[in-house]
Amino acid sequence: MSVIAGIAVAAAGLVLMFGAVWLWQLRTANAGMIDPVWAAGLGAIAVFAGVAGNGAGLNRSLVAMGGGVWGMRLALHLWCRNAAGPEDARYQRFRDEWGVAAPRNFFWFFQLQAVVALLLAIAFFVPAWSAQSASAASAAGAVLVWVIAVAGEALADRQLARFVARPSNHGQVCREGMWRYSRHPNYFFECVHWFAYTVLSIRLPFGWLTLAPPLLMAWLLMKVSGIPLLEAHLARTRAGYDDYLRSTSALVPWPPRRK
């Protein structure tokens, strides 16, 4: 399959997938389910690229395994978090602000997620359709970055889940583990994950394109839908969050500032 055909198949699959989630949220009034489906969709594209790509076998294997496992872990985590609880505060805010236009606006918002996912999938398409195999050093470096990123994100998610599960911590700010050094360590490792495919593709034709996904992810988290919306909610609902904002790095883990 050519790379153009592969992109077209992936785009069609994402549009249909997010359209189905939109119909689902009409019934459940829980738009937060877009999050696990988004992760699962990207993981599925990675596996698809590894299978349908006509590039070197090493490249396709690393893309399929790396993106597939990452997507499965994140999707399961988000599913367990979002399916059992109320709608995420970010989406509740959209629903309240949009009023009667919420169904229509959520449809286009979900389709925008399909566009973002397709742009991130550049990280999979470039190596999976490259006839030139990644060097042993690039492959080893990519695996190392991937392991650090996925393990770090999983650990941050587990530390936060353990903190939130304790009733005595209700309404409090998590400063345990990596959350002492970053307000969003899970987001930090999410950005690092996308750099794994940049390392894999660094010496491949068009490998420079794989810089776009991690930079896009960092921009989205820092400036658009991640940190700004989440922290606006947390500042209203968590005692001491203003002090946490002043003393703790937003993304990159760093020793907290002294008062």
Automatic annotation (TrEMBL):
<keyword id="KW-0812">Transmembrane</keyword>
<feature type="transmembrane region" description="Helical">
    <location>
        <begin position="105"/>
        <end position="129"/>
    </location>
</feature>
<keyword id="KW-1133">Transmembrane helix</keyword>
<feature type="transmembrane region" description="Helical">
    <location>
        <begin position="135"/>
        <end position="156"/>
    </location>
</feature>
<protein>
    <submittedName>
        <fullName>DUF1295 domain-containing protein</fullName>
    </submittedName>
</protein>
<dbReference type="InterPro" id="IPR010721">
    <property type="entry name" value="UstE-like"/>
</dbReference>
<dbReference type="Pfam" id="PF06966">
    <property type="entry name" value="DUF1295"/>
</dbReference>
<feature type="transmembrane region" description="Helical">
    <location>
        <begin position="6"/>
        <end position="24"/>
    </location>
</feature>
<feature type="transmembrane region" description="Helical">
    <location>
        <begin position="36"/>
        <end position="56"/>
    </location>
</feature>
<keyword id="KW-0472">Membrane</keyword>
